[in-house]
Specification:
Length: about 180
């Protein structure tokens, strides 16, 4: 969560609420968007000197707007430059499939059907986000940041999510068909 927040603050200073809403709208499939998890991460980052907070007044409300520090920028830059690690991507839900032979046949079928339904919903959410990204004009965003490159790689992440959902829908649909034929 901390690196995600640092990355968002690299793009623009934000309040805790703005961070939470951005995560909820765009990244909920990657991590938790609860206020508690965002606030806990912000408190840790502030304590470590990676972000600062200043009070701003919007209307009649006082809010804390968080900004990334040079230390935070250095830590984030070092993190984002590291190769992704394949062994860090885990799907604990596969343990249910691993032990599905211990469930009754009708329970297995119901669980797989529901998983396919959930993956179709996930794919729909990702397609909606992808459509939003396609409509974004980097020229309309604040200057000083290479938005075309940022949006490019965010788009790749969305494409990956859609491809992964398509794979899972197809794989589990074939499994469901097999299990319907031979419970």
């Amino acid at each position: 969560m901390e690196y995600l927040i640092l990355g968002l603050l690299m793009l623009s200073p934000m309040t805790g609420y703005e961070l939470q809403q951005f995560i909820k709208k765009n990244l909920a499939l990657i991590c938790s968007h609860s206020a508690g998890s965002v606030q806990t991460a912000l408190a840790k980052l502030k304590k470590e000197g990676k972000v600062t907070a200043c009070e701003v007044i919007q209307g009649k409300r006082r809010k804390k707007r968080f900004s990334i520090t040079e230390t935070g920028r250095s830590v984030f830059s070092a993190w984002v430059a590291q190769p992704m690690q394949a062994d860090r991507v885990k799907n604990m839900e596969l343990s249910r499939l691993f032990f599905a032979g211990l469930a009754r046949p009708e329970e297995r079928l119901a669980a797989i059907r529901d998983y396919i339904r959930q993956m179709k919903e996930t794919r729909g959410v990702l397609c909606a986000i992808q459509q939003q990204f396609r409509q974004m004009d980097p020229q309309e965003l604040p200057s000083g940041t290479d938005w075309s490159q940022i949006l490019r790689f965010q788009g790749y992440t969305i494409q990956y999510g859609i491809a992964a959902a398509d794979f899972e829908i197809g794989w589990y649909s074939r499994l469901l068909h097999e299990l319907e034929e031979q419970p």
